[in-house]
Queue: 2 jobs
Job 1
Amino acid sequence: MAVIDVALAGRPYCVVIEEGVLGRLAQAAAPFLKGYAGGRAVPFVADANTHRIFAGRVDAALAEAGLAADWFVVEPGEDAKTWGVLERLCDWLLALGVTRSDHVFALGGGVVGDLVGFACAIAKRGVGFVQLPTTLLAQVDSSVGGKTAINTRAGKNLIGAFHQPALVLIDPLVLATLPDREMRAGYAEVLKYGLLGDAAFFAWLEAHGSKVLARESHALEHAIATSIAMKARIVAADERETLDKRALLNLGHTFGHALEAETGFSDRLLHGEAVALGMVLAARYSARRGEISAEDAERAARAIAAAGLPADLSGLGLACDGAALVQHMRHDKKAEGTTLPFLLLRSLGEAYVARDVDLADIAAFLDGELSR
Ligand code: GLY
């Protein structure tokens, strides 16, 4: 078991990592359930998959404390992060009579967490919420940090708010039913923490990453706790991303977002897979600038490939050139000029924001990677 504090001034919260904690929800989240003791149902939001797999466990845990859940179930996938679903969710919360001292429970991956977090940010100008993440990606990344959002025609996550959860309960046992591909996609974000800020953790993952992917108890808990501890430190230091600290969490994301856009944000390339390949590209581009050695860049690529994640741009079979990928990056950042901030590496374990990157050079670099 590990408990990590997110030390935000005025609204600190805990992340609890504990096997089986979902089944002990009533005790673990007791302070946030007190308001429901009079017989009101506890609002829970899940997608159809997490509801099917975990609702029974949650209902039983609540029943032990004399409580009952009321479930709002959304379709699995990004389509739940829309104005329409947000409106229905807000109407449902208001019909339940939630108050600003209540807490809503989000059981699922990043989509459910983002949707519920944003609904809670705006309903009654701010209702509390508790994150119960059920994917590795949500457990090590999206359940902590307070960025909440929905997608619109203009792009992903463009309508949202900073709204921190009151508690995050991580049960590594729920990952037993996670498909292997999604486990690997979440693991990309774990590797990201090593690459961006912890060389010893990166080396540990090189040696023990297969145990994490196999969901071996100690290795998995260590990987989640180390990842969340770093995210908690960064978020506490730069909640609104106004310094160059929180931006480090975007390592691999600028390249990765271009790849997601080029593949239509589809199952062809999951977000974590795009981030994995984006980190290889960031490492190789850092080597091209002479900031790390070519050998270190290939060491990063080997760790990513060893996890069964894409580490080779030419292997994606894209029918585009480097300039088209750069155009996606410009569109993502709404930028017209010849440069963009890029997350690059000074070493394996130290990322930084480079503001002198020439996009023509990025396009030429990507042309080389596409035909590697
Ligand atoms: N909710 C994800 C983040 O704040 O980073």
Job 2
Amino acid sequence: MDAIKHYLQFKDFTREEYAYLFERARWIKEKFKRYEPYHPLFDRTLVMIFEKASTRTRLSFEAGMHQLGGSAIYLNTRDSQLGRGEPVEDAAQVISRMSDAVMIRTFEQTVIERFAENSRVPVINGLTNEYHPCQILADIFTFIEHRGDIRGKTVAWIGDSNNMCNTWLQAAELLDFNVHVSTPPGYEVEAERAGLYGTNHFEQFDDPMVACQGADLVTTDVWTSMGFEAENEERKAAFADWCVDADMMAVAAPDAVFMHCLPAHRGEEVTADVIDGAHSVVWEEAENRLHVQKALLEYLVVGRIES
Ligand code: CP
Ligand code: NVA
């Protein structure tokens, strides 16, 4: 029997698999826009486990499963035995006997890895402290839609070296583009935690303005990620100069796009004129979670389908 394929971090797939998924997402999106029903996951069930809050991730997976002909069940730690100390290995055994795929949003990456080791069905990372691969899948798909191939391009990451940043860095190594990272002192990238091979696809900059110079894509995220709320005040002070503003966008490439995974805090990590301005593609980016995850679910549950 073939090993079960999981999607726990960006580097779990090859460059060739990403080419397939981006093409498949384009096909699925077009069909959806033409109101043509497409039900490859008829009668299939996705279980979604949330240990942190969510709007987009829950909505896109739940709507996506419905649109593919299946259904989705939402579990959270508050209302299930997961929050009362049931071992993650036991939960994986039980949940994966009643479903066709499991999506998990949790804290440590090790939790999702332990779940996957004990699961009979594919497990998808819906965000951990370390990674957010479904979001970067949507972001790169969005970039391709607006600007074509991302290979050789430059992404400027301004702010915290968090789960989003780590995933951008993994994607850069795999898909051969560059990331300019600018973080405040003390918040730099930890290459090992990011899971990098050290292929020189990223460069650190002290000055966010320098990091943005010539960038094809400028992106940022909240200063305080979920699970780090106790550091909020300290972070607000440390990150004050890492707000993406019109001056930063002015030194990027003239056709640079701005992305943010959302939710955003206008006036903190980005100014309102940037996120609501001409370079911003944040709404398409959010919508594309739906389309890329439908391609991902189809691939993991029923395998490759040539369009
Ligand atoms: N971008 C993202 O994952 O959003 P949610 O936290 O709303 O799911
Ligand atoms: N870095 C953020 C992303 C939210 C979608 C967090 O982990 O809270």
